[in-house]
């Protein structure tokens, strides 16, 4: 058999290092497409001149481009037979990705726990994205529930890694040279700076975008994520194509420009849940909550820890969870990240 | 409140200069997308080699890319609360936009006139697009009807600028170095030159394109135009997304290749009306009328003043206005521009 | 009449050389779009670093980008009035297309045969694609059935060129410098090498993609192929837009990654049939058959002759033709090509 059947739960071993195919050179074409698929307007990723005014040599590729490219490569090895994408933790952007960089991914199996039904188990991997110099650009932990191929395969000794609930502010990596002391708030689009955001403050980002099949498939392919369920309308019994969770992440993040235009760079992913599936025809809106604030050693640069929530049509303002503590049916995404913002 | 509520009629003052966010670096990715979204084939914008044979260092970005990028930036400050986009005048392309240029926009309020109902008023702005050297690349006047937030706000002294009905040929700016004396009509696609077009001549461009939601949203986001009405199917009561008028402009202009393949560069926008709204599913066709001809000092370069009309399915040949002088329901766009064409 | 009516059967003469409009510079933007429209993952076209490890200066543009660009230019002169696209033969990729190259096309009429009904005839053209140095990058023969405009026009002396059923392996042109001796099978995505494929072996590529209107139109425009039937929903009586056959070719080729990840470069097109029309909403799957194997003089480089079949929903495994020897209604494409693969 020449085609890839994907890995099943019993195929993983603690300590396995998986070098993922296929390396990918990313340039301005990918950036143009990203900005056409999402209403992305953060100035640092839009303008070379603006990035230079912030101490960078030119505009890097969007932080989430890096994430999607690195993530997409892991799909054939990690989630082809996944039942569910359970969580993210300890994500950190380690250096910008520049146009022309070639990215590849490696994952290490750091946790395994078979479910009590004996039909599946949870696999924890720590993934790093590397550039053409073999320098890490991104790392994160992800865990997924994966089917067993042979229900009789013996359960491995359960190992569940201890994961931080949030990346400590002191562990955030600030891009070399970043300096917000000459930041132009007018060109960036909003006057609000680090000190203007209070812990607990919530922001309704107001705008909405209705999702199309062509758009989520174009986006998902751009990251070489080829999971059938996103592309093949004959795959699910209901004839629907499930939208890649990363599409919702990027849409919500772009929508958050309206109210968080100066939260320029994502530098850590503390956690995240894809609360409900998203399908074409859904209209996505977003809101944010300020979870924490931290100073950084870089000139003029502060950090905000933000909850980013994506909801769909019918959601009430700031909808998240019900009284039972479970996500409401209109909640699509609950993401927890750190972003850099001028002080 | 952190999100942008947009400006209302009473928020504008004559002489106000608005520096619009967000600067944008445009490169070959944007060009590739433009040529994928529209059947754009004018040789000067398609081939570096062809552009070099016309005296340019290489192929500039399409004239309408410059327009859309500059226009898109003005939306959050000018038309977020607009009821209608009323007109354009005195538009001039002042120099080509090259791949790698970073564009930003500034608008000056040059006219204000409250409507007699006291609920809205017309705002006139002169917008300039600037590159990273702060050199102007484009200027135009646009006026829009904007809602008042507070109906009790006092009406300003009415000022309506005097605007030229057409840019005089002597004011057209010819790109530096442009020389059509070695123009290759075969490679450009048609044999018709300046002298072959007569004032009053009309050309049916024959081809049609049916519009998709994904395409107009991708295009509109590419120019960072984020007006809700284009993206959010829950925004209008009829559940339709209104298509950005610039999408119709670019589609009609690209369709006009068939019959005007040598009308290479748009150098002035004399006026324009978005006669009726356009929605996904509409099939756009176009026709042109030669309004005027002028010589230019550049070698081999003539200018045509053209009316470009976009119509939708059901339109009769050369449909424009009815006997009552009003636009027919099938008329989408009535644009008046100057283009450069080899003599 | 200023618009292009296209050529009719009686307008072709044996030996006519047609220089097609419009030359096109292709760069990384076109590559990014190609990889967003198709699940293209062959490593040589995805990563500069991988291409360098295979002896190339950097990653060339996908072989099918070259094909589509060269083909698209011929449409206004060859197939605007075509009733059917009948076949391909003797296609060879002669050198890689690099980002920044400008492509144009020329076709020579090599065969003419009027049909017995006197209403149409077959036109055979040999097309070459040329870069900005006037060096050939691609050549192929294509024949189409074209309508006559004047049924009374006299039939030309019938000339049907003798065409090879397959490009001999000795005629394959290997890109200069290509060397697969240090090929990294892990990064490429699969362990299967030339010696692992047996003549007669068939591979079901498993994955499927449902086709959207926006996607096939974006793709087709990207190659400046502007045939009405692909874009105008009012053109056909059934209101359907016929999908450009090349869209199906690229989709099937990209799907064949799963099982043929190492069949990196297409170097010859032996033949091909668009067996049935494809419409938006169809779900495309693909399978391949190994038709032949050949060695090449390049280090570590072998060649496989492959049949690539695209089918739509409802097709049985390895569906192709019925007992009557005719293509089954679910068969969309039957393509015969040579690809280079590491030994």
From TrEMBL, chains A, B, C:
Entries under InterPro entries matching the protein? HotDog_dom_sf, MC_hydratase, MCH/BMMD, Thiol_ester_hydratase_Rv0216
Q: Name one Pfam family in it.
A: MC_hydratase
Write down what this protein is called.
MaoC family dehydratase
Which domain of life, per UniProt? Bacteria
Q: Which residues form a coiled coil?
A: none
